[in-house]
Amino acid sequence: MKRIIMILFFAWLTSASAEYNITTVEKRGIADDIVPCKWDNQDGVPCVTISKGINNSNRIGDKISPTFTITKSEIEKNNLIDLTKVLNHIQGIDVTQSGPTGQQGSVFFRGTNSNHTLVLLNGIPINDHSTPTGAHDVGQDFMANVQRVDVYKGSAGAHWGADAVGGAINFRTTVDYQKKIKISGNGNDKTVNGNYYTSVNGFDLSISAGQHESKNISALSGADEKDGTDNKSISVNVSKWYDLVHWRTTWFARNTFTDIDGHSLAIQDGKWADNTFYALQTGLDYKNSSLTLHTHSYDRDYDDAHYDSLNYTLRATQQYENFGFGFDYKHNESYSETQWSTDNRDLYNLGYFFNLSHNIFSYSHRFDEEHETYKLGFFKELDQGLSISGSTSTSYKDATTWTAIEYGDTHELTFAKNNFSATVFKNDIGALNTDGIEFGYGKDNFRVFASHLNSKSNDTVSLRRPNWALGFMHTKDLKNNFSITTNYKYKGKHLDVHNVNWSTISMPETHLLDLNLGYNFHGIDFGISLLNLFDEDYESPHGFGQEGRKFTLGFNKSF
To answer: Per the confidence metrics, is the pTM higher than 0.85?
Structure first.
C-alpha cells in the first residue's frame, strides 16, 4: 500500500514546476568587485561566504568535487531541527540515532565508518579528539544558529587533513542580516530560535540563539519512561569591511542535556549525558587570501564517565586562478575518564597543502607531520550538457584511544547530462571495502535520487548500511500563498547487531514521508509539519525506537 501511495505522490509531484531550493551558489562580492554583498533574499544566505567547492577559485576542482549545500531557508522550510534530519535527505549518506532527537547519532558516508567523517565549523575541523573512536556525534548538532550546511562526499584529506576519509560536513555561521523569530512545536516538543541584527559604525553584528526541548518516547525500545533532551545554543557574529579587507569573528556555544538508555542486557533508565561545546574564531580575508585563528573545546559529562578536549588552530590560504597554497597548525589536548580507564593525549600537527589546475586536470597535495595525501582529478565537457569527471585520492584517520591509524584510497567517476548525474565510487580503507553507484536528478523545485551500496569489512557485510536507498524532495507553490514541501526516503533492508544477544540480524526496510504545509500571511510564514506520515514503527539501530507520526505547528516572522 505504501508503494502505491508513493507512486501516486511521485506522479503528482513531477507534474509541477517551481523553484529549486537545494542550491549550490557561487561566491560573489570578493574576487570580482570587492563590494560587500550582504544578503541574497532568494536563497536566504549571506553571499560573502558562499563557495561552490573546496577550492574556491579552482573551477576544475569545483566541478570534480561538487558541494551539496542546504541553506537556512531550506532548513526552516523542511523543519530540519538537527543534523540527523539534514543528512537524511542526501543520497549516499546513512544516519542512525540511538533513540529520538538528542540521542547519539552516527553517520556513514558511502558505506564508510562513522569515524571516517570530518566535521568543520567555517572550514576548521572540530571533531572531538577525546572520543574513543574519533567519531563525531551528529545527534548533538542542532540547526538554530547555522546559516548553511555544506557536504563533501568522498575523500577530502588533501585539503582538510586527518579524518576526512569518507566525507566532510561544514557548518557555516556567518552574519545573518535579518531580524527574525521562529517558534514551532506540539505538546511534547518546542523549538524557539531567533536572530537580531544591527550595524554600528560599519560593524555588522548578529546574535542568534535557540532552544529545543522534547520529551516524547523512551530511547530504549519497549521501556516505559519518556526520554527527553534540552538543547540551548547561541552564536555571535561580527563582520566589518576595510576597503579591500574583510574582518570576521564568530563565537559559538551550545549545550545539550539528554536522558539516555543503554542496551537491553543492562537497561540504563535514568542515565544522562551533558554535552557542552564552545568555539571562538576570528580572521581576515583579502581578495583570495584568508587567515583564520580558531579555538574550541568540548566538555562531556555522563553519570559514569567524563571527556574533555581543547583545540587551537591557525589556518592561512592563498588562491590564484589556477594555483593555491596554504598551511594550518593544530594543537589538540584531550582527557577521558571512565570506570575502566583514563587517557591523556597531546597532539600537534603542522600541515602544508597546495592545489593546481591546468586544462582539464586538477591536482591537490598535502603534507602533514607524518602523512602525505593527494587528489588527482579531471573534468571534460564531451558535448553540450554532457560531461565526465573523475578522481583518485588518498586519506588517513588519526589513531584514537580505541583505534589505530587507517589509510584510505578513493576512486570515483561521474557522468552528467543536464540535470541528471550518475556516480560510481570505490573506497579501500584498511579492512573496509565499499563500492556503489549513485543516481540523481534535480530541476527547479524537484530532486530525486537512488543509490546502491556494497560495504564489507574483512569480507563481512557492514552493519547499518543498506544496499538500496532512494528518495525525493519537492516543493510546490499553491494558490493564495500556500506551498507544500514533500520529503520521502526509502531505506532498504540491512544488517544490525541484536540489542540483547549481540547476534547479527536483518532489519526491515523503512518508508519515511514528511509533509510541510506553508502559508504566508502579511509577512508571517505559518507552517504545519506532518513527520513520519506512515507512522513507521522502526528501530535504528536495533533496540532503540524512533518517533512515530508527529504533528507540529509553527510560525516564522522577519522584522
So the answer is: yes
Burial of 412: CB neighbours in 10 Å, binned 0-12, 13-18, 19+ = buried
For residues 154 and 110, the answer to whether their CB atoms sit within 8 Å is: yes
CA angle 417, 418, 419 (to 5 degrees): 105
pLDDT in tens, 96-120: 999 889 999 999 999 999 999 999 9
- Taking the C-alpha atoms of residue 136 and residue 116, their distance in angstroms, rounded to an integer, is 9
Residue found under cell 556567518: 174
Q: How confident is the model at residue 7 (pLDDT cuts 50, 70, 90)?
A: very low
DSSP-derived 3-state class of residue 421: strand
Cis peptide before 466 (omega within 30 of 0): no
Which SS3 state, helix, strand or coil, does residue 160 take?
helix
Spatial distance between the Cα atoms of 400 and 298, rounded to a whole number of angstroms: 16
Region of poorest pLDDT, from 1-10, 252-261, 294-303, 377-386 = 1-10
The residues, ordered by sequence, that sit 6+ positions from 134 with a Cβ below 8 Å of its Cβ are 115, 127, 163, 397, 398, 400, 403
Give the list of residues 6+ apart from residue 183 with CB closer than 8 angstroms, or none: 190, 191, 192, 554, 555
Work out the mean pLDDT of the chain and round it to a whole number. 86
- Alpha-carbon distance 223 to 111, whole Å? 31
**What is the number of H-type helices and E-type strands within the chain?**
5, 32
Question: Which pLDDT score is estimated for 21?
Answer: 32
pLDDT tens per residue across span 365-377: 999 999 999 999 9
Closest C-alpha to 278, from 247, 312, 248:
312
53 CB-contact burial (10 Å; exposed 0-12 / middle 13-18 / buried 19+): buried
pLDDT, mean of residues 267-277? 82
**Distance between CA atoms of residues 169 and 83, nearest Å:** 10
Q: Is the dihedral of CA 454, 455, 458, 462 positive or negative?
A: negative
395-405 mean pLDDT: 93
Q: Provide the residue type at 380 as one letter.
A: K
Whose CA is closest to 344, among 352, 353, 335, 354?
Answer: 335
Do 191 and 181 touch, CB atoms closer than 8 A? Answer: no
Fold observed for domain 17-558: Maltoporin; Chain A (2.40.170)
How far is residue 156's CA from residue 165's CA, in Å, rounded to a whole number?
Answer: 7
Residue 307 has which C-alpha cell? Answer: 571527556
Distance CA 246, CA 318 (A): 15
Contact 546, 529 (CB under 8 A): no
pLDDT category, 327, cuts 50, 70, 90?
A: very high
User: Within its chain, how far is the Cα of 480 from the centroid?
Assistant: 34
Q: Would you tell me how many other CB atoms lie within 10 Å of the CB of residue 224?
A: 8
List, in order, residues 6 or more apart from 51 with CB less than 8 Å away.
27, 67, 150
Question: Could you give the CA distance from residue 85 to residue 154 in angstroms, rounded to a whole number?
Answer: 20
Residue with cell 517551481: 18
pLDDT of residue 265: 55
Helix or strand holding residue 73 (H, E) = helix 72-77
> How far apart are alpha carbons 165 and 113 in whole angstroms?
9
Question: Which three-class secondary structure state does DSSP give residue 138?
Answer: helix
